[in-house]
Amino acid sequence: MRVGMFGAVVAAALVLTGCAAEPAPTPIPSASEASPTPSESAPSADPSASVVALVLRPTELELRNEAGEVLERLDYRSDFDQVKAELETVLGAAEETEEARGTSHFPPSTMHRWGGFELWEQRYVDRWESFADDERSFVKPSFLVRFTGPEAAGVRLETISGIGAGAAWTELEQLPELQTNPSGCSGPYVDFMDEPAVNADGEAYVSRTGVDFVESEDGLTVAAVRAPIAVSGGCA
After folding, report:
1. What is the pTM of this model?
2. How far apart are CA 222 and CA 135, in angstroms?
3. How far apart, in whole angstroms, are the C-alpha atoms of residue 179 and residue 188?
4. How far apart are CA 74 and CA 193, in angstroms?
5. CA spacing 20 to 30 A to 88: which of 55, 81, 177, 223?
6. Are 128 and 107 in contact (CB under 8 A)?
7. pLDDT tens digits, one per residue of 40-96
8. CA 207 – CA 185 distance, rounded (Å)
9. Which residues of 2-26 are buried (b: 16+ CB within 10 A; e: fewer)?
10. What phi and psi, each to the nearest 5 degrees, are found at residue 142?
11. Which of 165, 167, 192 is nearest to 178 (CA)?
């Protein structure tokens, strides 16, 4: 899929969406418990030698070994250059880099692609410049991740649900814990994180971030898996 097409898709998906239908899975209890802060170090000095899978989560990208142990967590709020360097030790140099223009919902981005793995650097410039000095959050992260296939450079691309890009859409629909957004602003999701937030009017609400699934044009397969995606609130 070319960047122009994805820019339009992600622009719609990044706006806030409606609450999901029952039954609800057990959410990640809080942002602090779900993932370390960007300053926390990895448990291994050189995890790249044994990384066999990248697992997409609501707050981070996990690097895991064959035993399923998490060797490193790449928080979406982390410094982009450091994250890209970490991924290059695992996947090698990016096979393709492209630019995407920003919209009212989606900042200008630089996409780096390794096979079925896409790393989207969020650039807070132009109309988004007012957010440039803000602390990065899961709503306005340093980077986004998109899986469009089952592997990249020999490394598996996975989710905790076991459903990935290329899987049958009916297989996803059969998951009893699957959440859907009646508004249709983003795809259905399983893995998510809730955290308290306050809107511009000072009103408290629950902000939900998830890993969502994008349906193929023919409706037969999962075309992509993405995170972090805001899945709370209403469409703009």
Report:
1. 0.76
2. 33
3. 6
4. 16
5. 223
6. yes
7. 434 445 655 699 999 999 999 999 999 999 999 999 999 999 999 999 999 999 999
8. 15
9. ebeebbebbbbbbbbbbebeeeebe
10. -75, -30
11. 192
